[in-house]
Specification:
2 domains, Four Helix Bundle (Hemerythrin (Met), subunit A), alpha/beta, globular
Length: 309
């Protein structure tokens, strides 16, 4: 199911639960109701403002439905995430298989993820008129475990080709970097939900190994989808939109509903993430050999908009 990603970006708001709806109120004056969203329609809630308050029973109801509640810092990066402890009727069996997976299996799977990311980066470059060949060449060289760290080598080439020689990826910077931060936060929330729904543990990663990161698997599996966000940010910048505003936020969220090409046909980005996580659980259980990754190429809606310019 494709749910709605709901962002609370205005200060002085209170979130509560009423008869299956998340209710948003203004805390000034008489607590005027601003709107309601059915809980069953929510994929994630992004708390991206100061002065928010929320009822505990709302957080419980969101967790019961597998919808992450994401806390953001001033730079629009996620700094905390409330996730459910129940995610799938086969959760215990799948987590046991996840823990038991061998290092060679993790290395093989990580190579598939890195290759897919590099191919998607190449597709993004091609869409902007930049040469994709440097990234495609690296994709063809990826070995098990990516021992040569071709992912990082690709990133160094990719950012300058996409945004120009003067660009540096800095999570604490504004403008384009702020847009990237926000887009990745939304993508991370959607991927986290998919990981939990697949019955996997988000802390047991394929490659990321930072002991302070409780979302290592989430950060692994969102990698092939990052270029979708990058290309949308490039498109926004090209249109003169470099600030994080309500309009640019909506544009970045909508990206997750755009279709990508897969072996099964056109599929929304959010569903592609769900299928990837489910396929990983199936690999761990010995039910399949390969990850279900999207085919290289642009989201179809974004490709159409670029072609019409």
């Amino acid at each position: 199911m494709i749910g709605r990603i709901v962002e609370i970006a205005d200060d002085r708001r209170h979130l509560s639960l009423h008869r299956g709806f998340m209710v948003v109120q203004d805390t000034e004056g008489e607590r005027k109701e601003l709107g309601q969203v059915p809980l069953d329609d929510i994929a994630a809630v992004i708390a991206n403002a100061h002065g928010l308050s929320y009822a505990n029973n709302l957080l419980v109801a969101l967790a019961e439905r597998g919808a992450p509640f994401v806390l953001c810092a001033a730079n629009h990066n996620a700094v905390g995430m409330l996730l459910p402890i129940d995610g799938n009727f086969q959760q215990a069996k799948r987590i046991e298989a996840q823990i038991a997976a061998s290092q060679p299996t993790h290395k093989r799977l990580w190579a598939h993820v890195v290759r897919a990311k590099l191919e998607q980066q190449a597709a993004a470059l091609e869409a902007t008129g930049a040469p994709p060949a440097p990234l495609l060449a690296l994709a063809n060289k990826v070995k098990s475990g990516d021992p040569e760290n071709l992912e990082a080598q690709g990133a160094r080439r990719y950012w300058t080709l996409l945004f120009g020689e003067g660009f540096r990826r800095d999570q604490n910077a504004d403008n384009v970097n702020g847009l990237l931060n926000y887009g990745y936060t939304v993508l991370r929330a959607a991927t986290a939900r998919a990981v939990i729904a697949a019955g996997l543990h988000p802390s047991i990663g394929l490659h990321h190994s930072n002991d302070n990161n409780a979302m290592r698997l989430v950060d692994d599996l969102m990698e092939p989808f990052r270029p979708v966000i990058d290309l949308k940010v490039w498109h926004l910048q090209r249109g003169g939109k470099t600030e994080v505003t309500p309009d640019t936020k909506r544009a970045l969220v909508r990206t997750l509903y755009d279709d990508m090409q897969t072996d099964a046909g056109a599929t929304p980005v959010m569903v592609c993430a769900q299928r990837l996580c489910t396929s990983l659980a199936q690999v761990y259980l010995g039910e399949r050999d390969k990850l279900d990754l999207p085919l290289p190429g642009l989201p179809l809606a974004l490709a159409a908009s670029l072609n019409n310019e």
